Amino acid sequence: MKDKKEIPFNKPYLTGKEVHYLYDSVSSGKLSGNGKYTKKCQNFLVNSYGFGKCLLTTSCTDALEMAALLIDIQPGDEVIMPSYTFVSTANAFILRGAKIVFADSRKDHPGMDEASIEKLITAKTKAIVPVHYAGVACDMDVIMDLADQYNLFVIEDAAQAIDNYYIDRTGNKRALGSIGHLAAFSFHETKNIISGEGGMLAINDAQFQERAEIIWEKGTNRSSFFRGEVDKYGWVDIGSSFLPSELISSFLWAQLENLKEIQQRRTEIWNLYFQGLETWAHDNNIGLPVIPSYSTNNAHMFYLVFENIEQRDSVIKKLKKNNILAVFHYLSLHKSEFYKDKHDGRELIESDSFSDCLVRLPMFFELEDSQIERIIKVIKSSI
Amino acid sequence: MKDKKEIPFNKPYLTGKEVHYLYDSVSSGKLSGNGKYTKKCQNFLVNSYGFGKCLLTTSCTDALEMAALLIDIQPGDEVIMPSYTFVSTANAFILRGAKIVFADSRKDHPGMDEASIEKLITAKTKAIVPVHYAGVACDMDVIMDLADQYNLFVIEDAAQAIDNYYIDRTGNKRALGSIGHLAAFSFHETKNIISGEGGMLAINDAQFQERAEIIWEKGTNRSSFFRGEVDKYGWVDIGSSFLPSELISSFLWAQLENLKEIQQRRTEIWNLYFQGLETWAHDNNIGLPVIPSYSTNNAHMFYLVFENIEQRDSVIKKLKKNNILAVFHYLSLHKSEFYKDKHDGRELIESDSFSDCLVRLPMFFELEDSQIERIIKVIKSSI
């Protein structure tokens, strides 16, 4: 019954150094935030991806909340984002009083349809929040042009997009999260690079860099004080406790040190899925992930798009019967119990379609080639 | 020069089991929030202290923010709290639009003067936030009576008050944090029980227990779903990612297992300070911590109150010269750069006095008797 061994949907990968660095932070006695490992991680991320500045946070949700504070969202301000996203993308702005204007997904991809954004812009629009779904880039040139034209902020929800790139119209490769005014990343255990719970705010627009640090430090100018820039520190602004413990950042450091190895194996897995399913998918009218020409692939996720919810559910069931855990993903936020009465009534058919038809396959560093073959075999036999 | 070895103000104490439990959580592969150790900690806290329900959070700040969401603070609502407190006590409510009405401290203690509260209550008052400074209880009977009379919520800021008790007018010993409708605790590395960064919300009023879990889980009914109470989960409310990683809760578990041992040693240290300084303080008109008859003592902090800022600063300087780190504490929030123009102009002289005159002495589990003697000796020689 070897064949029946369960394949989980996700399994956090430990590089082996996590416990070592955890132990180092524990024995150093500095366990609160903004210590040695926090700085190591932040410097690594800035240097690797060209972000203006990085601040680790306790979650991507918290990074998005920092962004909402920084752009000074006021009650009634409108924020445009896809309906096919995680609740935190919306909640972070709703907590500041924003009205969410949901955009539909592209037909070929769950990412927000860039061509649909302009007609959603009103005098109240304050920001656009592109979500790089599955780590795949939104068309940032289009979005940044709109932001320039209408004087809007762009906050990249890069929760899934670590180590991925957008190729702009001049052919430049730009790291996702380095393009918008601000960007939020996740290191939740389901992501490529993890720290259990955790996140990071990239602050690319220099006007926000000083205040970001203050908001991160509970509304105090403590960081500035420790750099000797002010002679005492106190309460100067709103803020929260966004910074994670060194327990979190020391763990994250081990992951970042092994980023290349992690990305390489995930890419192999992604390619094995793609090659194994390509012909079958074409023959059966099943959608595979689309990587647009302006995006590289960070192999965060491998998904299939079925023709309807019944077909999708039957495949999930068949996989489960074979001890393989595959899962659907977001439910359109504009149809949620919380927001359906606040939404303006527009139909967002692509978002609904991805809610019904998309399924994510097991994807984690330690997934073996033989397991991938087994998964592909079960999928092919189920239609 | 053995005598000159530095005595830090704080040193996080590790019981020895932290790395063991961290390793267990790491190797279990469940690193995100709400796993085994989170539940162990929450159950322990509920069972030990009679809280209605407990939810671990990434910080005490976050627990206070959850409280502000739960009592549905709206712009213009007024919240009464001491001026002599940490910025997060105020910011958590300001983020929801509250106006803070600052109360003065007692003359004999930095805690809020209970007798001053009633005249601060208006038709807009929504909540009172007593801060159990140094872990010492506020007079909760007085505060709860006011809350009943004026229909207000009471949120205990119990950041420093783990394992401490209020003796009510009927002689019952009630754990701090179990009395108000809600209470926020901190496990920051400077507290008695630590997890680097970390906190906990106690939810004593049953009306908030279901919604607290939803807000904690990013505004979704995910917890309810996993208990089989609803057949799918989705976005039902505002919320954030308040729950900490299992890395944090596994660490905390080791601390909670050793709570008695930790508290015993801290109490010994506190008593050594008190006995060593009592006569000297009396003779020199220096204030020592006051533990009112209605409070027990969790030995969170040992402080002295000098006659004026010059005397206080000179003692800190003298201690520093002798390689002993003692520190002052809060600056009155009503005089802060952020709030001075928003404050209603009332003088809060006791709060200002504690800002100027209070100094906290080194206080940590591993502080040795001989070090305490050395500290006392230097203090006595400095006046």
Automatic annotation (TrEMBL), chains A, B:
Q: Is Transmembrane there in the keyword field? A: no
> Do the record's keywords include Hydrolase?
no
Pfam families named among the record's database cross-references: DegT_DnrJ_EryC1
Q: Which of UniProt's keywords are assigned here?
A: Pyridoxal phosphate
What SUPFAM superfamilies does this protein map onto? PLP-dependent transferases
Q: Where is the active site?
A: K191
Positions carrying N6-(pyridoxal phosphate)lysine: K191
Entry's family note = Belongs to the DegT/DnrJ/EryC1 family.
Classification via NCBIfam families: ECA_wecE, PRK11706.1
Protein name (record): TDP-4-oxo-6-deoxy-D-glucose aminotransferase
Task: Please report the organism this UniProt entry assigns to the protein.
Answer: Rhodonellum psychrophilum GCM71 = DSM 17998
